[in-house]
Amino acid sequence: xxxxxxxxxxxxxxxxxxxxxxxxxxxxxxxxxxxxxxxxxxxxxxxxxxxxxxxxxxxxxxxxxxxxxxxxxxxxxxxxxxxxxxxxxxxxxxxxxxxxxxxxxxxxxxxxxxxxxxxxxxxxxxxxxxxxxxxxxxxxxxxxxxxxxxxxxxxxxxxxxxxxxxxxxxxxxxxxxxxxxxxxxxxxxxxxxxxxxxxxxxxxxxxxxxxxxxxxxxxxxxxxxxxxxxxxxxxxxxxxxxxxxxxxxxxxxxxxxxxxxxxxxxxxxxxxxxxxxxxxxxxxxxxxxxxxxxxxxxxxxxxxxxxxxxxxxxxxxxxxxxxxxxxxxxxxxxxxxxxxxxxxxxxxxxxxxxxxxxxxxxxxxxxxxxxxxxxxxxxxxxxxxxxxxxxxxxxxxxxxxxxxxxxxxxxxxxxxxxxxxxxxxxxx
Length: 428
Hints:
Layout: H1 6-9, H2 16-22, H3 53-62, H4 72-82, H5 85-90, E1 116-121, E2 133-136, E3 142-146, E4 157-160, E5 175-179, E6 192-195, E7 202-203, E8 229-232, H6 238-247, E9 253-256, H7 268-272, H8 290-294, E10 299-303, H9 314-321, E11 325-329, E12 344-345, H10 352-364, H11 366-371, H12 374-378, H13 384-389, H14 395-406
Parallel strand pairs: 1-3, 1-4, 4-5, 5-6, 6-7, 8-9, 8-10, 10-11, 11-12
Antiparallel strand pairs: 2-3
Membrane topology: Single-pass type II membrane protein
Keywords: Glycosyltransferase, Golgi apparatus, Membrane, Transferase, Transmembrane, Transmembrane helix
EC number: 2.4.1.-
């Protein structure tokens, strides 16, 4: 199975019976270094908080073991009566400092060298036009972000994403900003590098709303009772397919997209859920119905293209926003970037059989399943608010602050940073 072989991917764990016992306790997340392999990650099973003693008796009085497996609000009500937000908050471990996320205010007011910065986006790119604006930032800084050379006729920085920046820059020329959010990030010749990683000049996570443009955001009040997992992939990478093929046959699922499709073709989604094709201006986009369709399933399988620290993409955040529980394979430090007790980390199980058994167990238990949604209903975000604070949504002000700290186009020329590939240089 290559990089994602079951042996290397999945950490040793306990038996299924012990898993269900551990699920009644508070999970403990261990800090992971950048070199930690996914099979070394300790995953805290979801908490079944305080269901012993008096609360166990209350649970028995409230819930008689009956749930139709569909009404998600009914599951919430049973969780409220059995556990509740007060108990949930009380049993959460303390929030620990992490290194996976950059300080949104990493540039201090005293470091600003100019109070207005203009950024010219140099090429046709997927960066949304909705970022184009004059942004009022903290410390009295204003930030003009535009794709128009008329509006930014003398920019402080040129922004590149599709093509690499020019290798040469002299003082007085715009600073070179380069964004690469892919896992195999490539430093080019630039003055400021924007990536998904906190250790680079400016961080931009996938958690922002700009990765959810043109979506049907309808949330279904009913979950599929018998088909538990949603998965969709049209880029059939071997490692990702290997994981999916190891898990999906063990759990009832619907696989949309080109890869492992079992619903009768890529057009089946709208036939199954016509409501997901309604509303908005992007009905004809392949991505328009995704949130809506996911919301009909208790679980969404989210597998990253590459196992890399901090590389957590929209595959995970789509599922969270759709009100489903992600089953995640990817970044070893993912728990630093998501709400507490909101996802299932697939690598925390000793085998796919064990993971499948756990998924089926949750699907039949409204209280345990609803606990994966408690963070949202109780307002417990953990580090997730931090993840969103350094997303693409807030990039203009944070980038302009970094440009101002350097002095904009008046910054001294820096030594070229060779990346060994000049094929995509484009000075424009």
